[in-house]
Amino acid sequence: MTADTSLVTDTAALVVDTSAVTAVLFDEPGSGWLINTLVEASRCYMSTGTYLELGIVLESRFGPTGTGTADRFVRDSEITLVDVTPEIALRSLEGWRRFGKGRHPAALNYGDCFTYGLAAERDLPILCTGEDFAQTDMFVLRPGHATSGSDDASLAE
């Protein structure tokens, strides 16, 4: 996998979503940019709720070894796991109320809500893929785009 540094932003700290990890592990388009963004960030965080979702996704894809894959990726990427505090849980619930599946086009699922809650509590951008978080009020880092709220400011075509 060759890393493309042309779109990496100067990111002090960020919150990592399951979608970013699976994109890297499955070598999806933009995975090089995601790797560089993880490397360049001074600190990377993931909610333990998101970590649970990641384990479920990887175990359903790879069987029992999927959880080990999640563990290795988080360790090797130096992602700090953050416990779901009452404050993060409240922010997660707020995210679901405003942007949850069946309520809003962003359609945040259960795991997404933990990413949203941690990012909202710490006022940090979310590293992800796809359109879901880009339709919320959070600052989003994703391959080819950096968006704030519903703004769709493209960094590259």
TrEMBL record:
<dbReference type="GO" id="GO:0004540">
    <property type="term" value="F:RNA nuclease activity"/>
</dbReference>
<dbReference type="InterPro" id="IPR029060">
    <property type="entry name" value="PIN-like_dom_sf"/>
</dbReference>
<keyword id="KW-0479">Metal-binding</keyword>
<feature type="binding site">
    <location>
        <position position="17"/>
    </location>
    <ligand>
        <name>Mg(2+)</name>
    </ligand>
</feature>
<dbReference type="InterPro" id="IPR002716">
    <property type="entry name" value="PIN_dom"/>
</dbReference>
<comment type="similarity">
    <text>Belongs to the PINc/VapC protein family.</text>
</comment>
<keyword id="KW-0540">Nuclease</keyword>
<keyword id="KW-0460">Magnesium</keyword>
<dbReference type="InterPro" id="IPR050556">
    <property type="entry name" value="Type_II_TA_system_RNase"/>
</dbReference>
<dbReference type="Pfam" id="PF01850">
    <property type="entry name" value="PIN"/>
</dbReference>
<dbReference type="GO" id="GO:0090729">
    <property type="term" value="F:toxin activity"/>
</dbReference>
<protein>
    <recommendedName>
        <fullName>Ribonuclease VapC</fullName>
        <ecNumber>3.1.-.-</ecNumber>
    </recommendedName>
</protein>
<dbReference type="GO" id="GO:0000287">
    <property type="term" value="F:magnesium ion binding"/>
</dbReference>
<keyword id="KW-0800">Toxin</keyword>
<feature type="domain" description="PIN">
    <location>
        <begin position="15"/>
        <end position="137"/>
    </location>
</feature>
<dbReference type="GO" id="GO:0016787">
    <property type="term" value="F:hydrolase activity"/>
</dbReference>
<feature type="binding site">
    <location>
        <position position="112"/>
    </location>
    <ligand>
        <name>Mg(2+)</name>
    </ligand>
</feature>
<dbReference type="InterPro" id="IPR022907">
    <property type="entry name" value="VapC_family"/>
</dbReference>
<keyword id="KW-1277">Toxin-antitoxin system</keyword>
<keyword id="KW-0378">Hydrolase</keyword>
<comment type="function">
    <text>Toxic component of a toxin-antitoxin (TA) system. An RNase.</text>
</comment>
